[in-house]
Amino acid sequence: MDIVKELNKLIHPGRISTAAAVISQHNHDASYHPAANPDVVVFPENTQEVSAVLSFASEHGVPVIPFGKGSSLEGHAIPYEGGISLDLGLMNELKTVGDKDGHVVVGAGLTQFQLNDALKKHGLFFSVDPGAEATLGGMAGTNASGSYTVKYGTMRDNILDMEVVLPSGEIIHTGSKAVKSSSGLHLSGLFAGSEGTLGVITELTLRVYPIPEASVAARAVFNDFEEAVTAVVRLRTAGLDLARIEFVDAASVAHVNRFANASYIEQPTIFFELNGEVEHLQHQIKRMEELLKPFHLAEFLTETDQTSQERLWDARHNLAYYYIQAAPTKRMLVTDVCLPISELADSILHARQAVEESGLEAGIVGHVGDGNFHIIAMADFEDANEVTAAKQLHKEIVDYALAHDGTCTGEHGVGIGKKSYQSKEHGTAYDLMRTIKQAIDPRGIMNPGKLVD
Amino acid sequence: MDIVKELNKLIHPGRISTAAAVISQHNHDASYHPAANPDVVVFPENTQEVSAVLSFASEHGVPVIPFGKGSSLEGHAIPYEGGISLDLGLMNELKTVGDKDGHVVVGAGLTQFQLNDALKKHGLFFSVDPGAEATLGGMAGTNASGSYTVKYGTMRDNILDMEVVLPSGEIIHTGSKAVKSSSGLHLSGLFAGSEGTLGVITELTLRVYPIPEASVAARAVFNDFEEAVTAVVRLRTAGLDLARIEFVDAASVAHVNRFANASYIEQPTIFFELNGEVEHLQHQIKRMEELLKPFHLAEFLTETDQTSQERLWDARHNLAYYYIQAAPTKRMLVTDVCLPISELADSILHARQAVEESGLEAGIVGHVGDGNFHIIAMADFEDANEVTAAKQLHKEIVDYALAHDGTCTGEHGVGIGKKSYQSKEHGTAYDLMRTIKQAIDPRGIMNPGKLVD
What we know:
The structure is a homodimer.
Chain A: H1 3-8, E1 16-17, H2 20-25, E2 40-42, H3 47-60, E3 64-67, E4 84-87, E5 94-98, E6 103-107, H4 112-119, E7 124-125, H5 136-141, H6 149-152, E8 159-165, E9 171-173, H7 187-191, E10 200-207, E11 209-210, E12 214-222, H8 225-236, E13 244-248, H9 250-259, E14 269-276, H10 278-292, E15 297-303, H11 306-317, H12 319-326, E16 331-334, H13 341-358, E17 361-367, E18 372-379, H14 384-403, H15 422-426, H16 428-440
Parallel strand pairs in A: 2-4, 3-4
Antiparallel strand pairs in A: 1-2, 5-6, 6-10, 7-11, 8-9, 8-10, 12-14, 12-15, 13-14, 13-17, 16-18, 17-18
Enzyme class (chains A, B): oxidoreductase
Cofactor (chains A, B): FAD
Domain FAD-binding PCMH-type (chains A, B): 34-211
């Protein structure tokens, strides 16, 4: 069968491509995982077209791989079994801004940055902020989170409803526009984080928030790695109303200085944000200073100027790119474990030791308010020793997290990179996930090889 | 086959009962739904016993109906096809209080009141507060919520992990103790709200919160129903940090006065709670007063005394029981729609008109901060006219909610009472729910006849 010829009957030929440049845009992501070409890339304009493609693919057993911006760190959008790369980029409409209801309705191809640009004039913002310019459909697919998650929750927490096209081509809604519901099974939660293995998300109804009256950024610089980690736990459990609490190690501060033209002290640092009413903020900053007194700080600074704050958070978000710029011949492997807060200090100390033993160029950063941290490790994937070291480091970090009540991935998702840990993490529940996958996608066309088999 | 004889091989005979008194404790719930007897009631002591019962039931096609406290309002625990009523009451251990992690591990048979009593000395509380003394397993089963949900979320939002016994007898964990995860399919969300139709919840890891530094209750009494409803929407969308925002109509205030020995003005009233730091509270109360100025209030009072506050909230929680006490020969039908906030004012005004047209004794109350409200209607179920009126009223309210982007049940769940609305609310997604049910419980032993077929 000639797939392209068949697709031409369903979709305007101008939105179906096998051009080498288009294929290679859709054969990789932002990670170290090897590239693999799709047979064809399709750019649907609406849900009916997605439905037509899936019906066709189901009938003929053709793999379909949803594609947003290709910013995944775990190979989610790489078509290892060929087939159709379904690029949702044209379905990027901001359909409704429900000011009173605090929600928006968006096409799955809209990116988080586009959404926030559009929301500004309504005095609203969307809170889920992974570093990359990801699409909201992709972010739902991996249950993305980010620096604001400690206050505003993950992607899944902010989804009211999704329109999803099932492998059969049937179109469903997973929820409603009510902020809570006890009706039916919780399909929004099931499809969020399903990584395109159960269907294609085409539209999302998302919770958005009023831009706070004011915000303050604070920066606490420590002389000692261990003290910094202990302070994180102290602040996290003190009940402060923190909007962001980010740990950055000395190596990573050095990268910020180099690539973001900054001059922060190159020592373990915690970046905070508090937001809300001005009086409330002042009170909270005071409490934070008191809580930090027992520690030996090299510096404690607060920043109320909006531009300086944005510059700081941009630098934090861009950290992964700085590591890539610093080692252009290497590729990036990022760990993503998340542990209970009580296990966090020990686990980051363990991670630092593992990094040192690996001999790799690497830094530790993290959304530590949630117990989630990353090792950004650069390795030459042509060098067998470095590859072994990187994979060994990854395994060591995940094994530690699983042995201490944690998870192998806090926000990046499973894709192919965490798949070998699924059985260990979920035990018999992984069989149940397979049962669900098999029931919803019996032909196995949806993003084969990712998350579950 | 003699079920009891077979069960005797698995469970100590002292915890298997067919005594009339025990059967009749397990043949009804707190609603108007007709009673039906189980064949036998089993009281497992641990997860292995639950597993043994389910393996046996699966093999022989015997229905299993999980039972907590029987406080359901939609017939969830009534065994309409006979079988085994599985009473989790003995599995009520508080296993872990993770102070640093802000979570607890509990047996499914522990009640919300028992949990909160035990947490007090740790300076912690559990936030999900339906009116009844429900078990935490039952509350997870229906995705319960309550007056604190506007600030702290629903049951599902507060579950990190559950131990669940599948129909096959296999034991799984649905999550981990990390506060966020992108690993695997979201089984915690799927089993929360599945109403015992997919398996038996035996243990839960739940998020708990520090008891706030201070709290203030406020009471705004309106001269006019319409103004009260408009004020709710105004306050809700102003970004105030409200912990509770409860609307109570005049008829319901009258019931509170009569049965809780109070003397509130018998007019439409909003009860609030704000909690947090003292300074923050003062500022918020001031803002609330400003926002309420344009309305013609009969009274605005704040209450900082803890005992008075508790008395007020107990009265609110007990409202349904007051209606039952006031009409002891009648039975209670409670609607439970939830709509987007922008639709709330019109929907409550519509509800009031529908109540008046029904001729039934009824009141309107609600967790209006979430868009969720209830009509508590009393009807004589021996009187065909009253039954028709009650069912017509229910249908009218649900149809209105579904036509305005809402849901038929915000917190009580589907059971048998909302089942006829599932297809209309979920459309083709209801077929998918059936597919999932069929995949996980192919013999259909788990709580047959509820939620999905």
